[in-house]
Structures are given as C-alpha cells and as structure tokens.
Amino acid sequence: MSISGDDFSESVGVVQAAKGEADVLLKGLGEKQDIKKILEMPNRASIRREVSHTNFITSSVLKDSMLALEKIADLKVVAHGRYPEAERCRLSLGHPDVFTSDPDIVSALRFLCLSGVSGNFEFSPCSHGDFIGAILGTRIVREKLGDIIVQAWRKKGAHVLVPELVYFLVSTLDKVGNVSVNCKNTCRRS
C-alpha cells in the first residue's frame, strides 16, 4: 500500500502536533494564539486522563479549532454553549474512554449555570454592552463569560452564562447602567 504525499504530510502533521509543534496544524487558520492554546490541551488531557475545558471562544476560533483538532487521533471534542445558537461556546476535549466514563463530565455538558439579572429597566433601558460593561466591572474576564441574553422585550434584565463564576456574579453585581439589579443563580439542565 502506498501513501500519497498529502496523506504522508497530514500524518506527519499529527505526529509533530503531538510533540508540541502545533504550528503545522495552524497553517491557513485565523486567530493562531487562541487556537495554539487550545491545541496544547489534548496532550495535557491525555497525560492526566481527564477532560479539559476551554474558556469561552468566538465562533471563528471554534471553527478553526475544530478543523485543527479533528486531525488528532484518540480525541473526542464537544462544543457547548447552553443552547444550539450560542455565539460563544466552550470546547470540552479528552480521550474518548475518559469522556464517557466520568458521570460528572457527561452531566457538565448538559448543566451550565446562568445568572438571572433583574431590575426595573422600563425607564432606563440597558443594552447588551451595558450588561457586558457591568459584568466586566466585577473583574470577571471576557473569556469566562458566555452569551448574555438581554430580555429587552420584557424590560426586566438578562440571563448571563458564567458557569464557574455564577456565585461570584450573584454576590458582586448590583448595578447595570443606572439601574439597581438583583442576581440569582438559575442553574438548570439544558
């Protein structure tokens, strides 16, 4: 059986990436720094026999990361962001055996926490940017923040996806724009 030049270079690319030379897999892809960090995760997850989770990433980084990660053998990758149309998602990746054997991992993919932010926005409406600004003002970095779903039609507030930081956000966010707000943990199965 012969191997064509393309097959050979792709096989070599996977081997080189496994040795830490992710640059081969990054050819032709966009935001290389973000993708390079993600490409370092499979090796770490394999050594530790665990599932690793990325921070929230944009759809372009998600697409390029998936293209690069699909070339790595013995790796399962799942993108999730609370709902199918989510603009910001996280990747969970690990060896297929580990991925399905730990019940906490399987449930984590279906169980992402939201923080419900409510207030009387009828006389002082707030935009998506107002909510982002207020949340970033609590010192939560953008990478830990998923989608913000503003309930403009009800003028009541927003739902914010912050899995690991939901309790922090509930205890620190007290104002969006000029409106005093209440936050609550609204974790539920998706």
Describe the secondary structure blueprint for this structure.
Elements: H1 5-18, H2 23-26, H3 32-39, H4 41-48, E1 52-53, H5 59-69, E2 76-80, E3 90-94, H6 96-101, H7 103-110, E4 114-118, H8 128-136, E5 148-150, E6 157-161, H9 166-172, E7 175-176, E8 179-180, E9 182-185
Antiparallel strand pairs: 1-3, 2-3, 4-6, 4-9, 5-6, 7-8
Order of helices and strands: HHHHEHEEHHEHEEHEEE
Summing up helix and strand content along with how strands pair, one would put the structural category as alpha+beta
Note poorly predicted spans.
Answer: 1-20, 106-111
> Largest beta sheet: what is the strand line-up?
5-6-4-9
DSSP strand tally: 9
Gyration radius (Cα, Å) is: 20 Å
- Helix tally equals 9
Distance between the termini: 48 Å
Roughly what fraction of the amino acids lie in strands? 15-25%
Described by strand count, sense and barrel closure, the largest sheet is:
4 strands, antiparallel
pLDDT averaged over residues: 76
Q: Globular, elongated, flat, extended or rod-shaped: what is the shape?
A: elongated
Helix content: 25-40%
Offer a quick outline of the entry.
The chain is of the alpha+beta class and 190 residues long. It has helices at residues 5-18, 23-26, 32-39, 41-48, 59-69, 96-101, 103-110, 128-136, 166-172; strands spanning 52-53, 76-80, 90-94, 114-118, 148-150, 157-161, 175-176, 179-180, 182-185. It contains 9 helices and 9 strands.
